Amino acid sequence: MPLSEHEQRMLDEIESALYAEDPKFVSSVSRQRVGRPNARRQWQAALLLVLGLAMLVGGLMIDVQIGELKIISLLGFFVMFAGGLLLLLGPRGGATAGGSGGRAGAKKPAAKGSLSSRMEDRFNKRFDQRDHE
User: What pLDDT is stored for residue 50 in this prediction?
Assistant: First the structure.
C-alpha cells in the first residue's frame, strides 16, 4: 500500500533531519547491502559446493587416511560448508538500504533495460496528468 502525500512528506522531513543530524550514521547504514546474492557470488558458491561434493565422494574411493579418518572426504565437507556459507552470509548485491544511494523520496531516471521501472514511470506520468487536469 503506497504512502499518502502527507505521510511521504513527513518521511522526507524525517529523512532530511537524519541526514543533517548524523551524516556518518546515514553513510554507514546506506553502505549495507540487502537483497539476493549477485550472480557472481552464486556461481562461486555453486562451484565450491560441486567441488566439495566431488572431494567428498572421491575421498571415499581414494584410500588416503590419517588414522581412521578419510582426510579428502573431510576436506570436501569443509569446502561444501564454505560454499553454503558464502551463499548465505557473503556480501550481497542489489539495492542499498537507503534505496539507490539517494533519498528515498527522490525520483531517479529509469534504466533503459528495466521494463518494470519504465512501466512504473509511464503509470506515474499518467496518474500525475490526471491529477493536474
Answer: 94
